[in-house]
Amino acid sequence: MDVTEIRLESGEVLLNYPVGIRPWMAKIVGHLGGKPDKTQTKKIQLDMLGTSVWDQLDGKRSVRQVIQQFKNNYQVHPKEAEKSVIQFLRDLGKRGIIGLK
To answer: How does strand 13-20 pair with strand 4-7?
Structure first.
């Protein structure tokens, strides 16, 4: 999967990621005379918290380490750090932006 990252002047990250077109949508476009692309690109802009987590996703750190770093950086309760980071990672996973080992 080809995810591209753009750093904004604010320091936040904008991610561009491909998504496949659903077969039923391709049929509708075909019936209307268009030629459907197999993939489309979507964007998601991460806030500063999301960007800080994104920057740690290097394939070397464990989820536990990312949670610990988030907790330390933002001085939040361990359960809140765990809940926030895991939800963020799930969202990226559902979008196909990341995969977990």
So the answer is: antiparallel
In the chain, the largest separation of any two C-alpha atoms, in whole Å, equals 56
Q: Where are the alpha helices (DSSP H) in the chain?
A: 23-31, 48-54, 63-74, 78-94
Please write the tens of the pLDDT for every residue from 7-52. Answer: 999 999 999 998 876 666 666 766 676 666 666 789 999 999 999 9
Closest by CA to 92, choosing from 33, 38, 51, is 51
pLDDT per residue as tens digits for the range 48-68: 999 999 999 999 999 999 999
Which element (helix H / strand E) includes 12?
none
In the chain, where are the structural domains located? Answer: 4-94
CA distance 81 to 64: 10
What CATH number does the domain located at 4-94 have? 1.10.10
Given this model, what pLDDT does residue 22 score?
A: 64
